[in-house]
Fold this protein.
Amino acid sequence: MSDQGAGAADVAAVCVANIGPKERRTRMRFGVILLGGGAGLAAVLVGIEAHRLWRLLLFLPFWAGALGMLQARAKT
């Protein structure tokens, strides 16, 4: 009988971190810097009343910062 009904707990027990603590700290630092920089840039763009399309570019630092922090947290 096959075990096709494996739950999330079974899968989580098999997952192994593929980066070490140093790389996790680096990714977390990268994420925090990008999120902070994005927030600062957002404040500047809103302050100078930049066009909405310019503010749309803020997606990139926010996305990359969140990705770095999530990767560090998930140890991947």
Q: What stands out?
A: Residues 49 and 55 are 9 Å apart (CA to CA). The chain has a mean pLDDT of 86. The chain has one domain: 20-74. The radius of gyration is 18 Å.
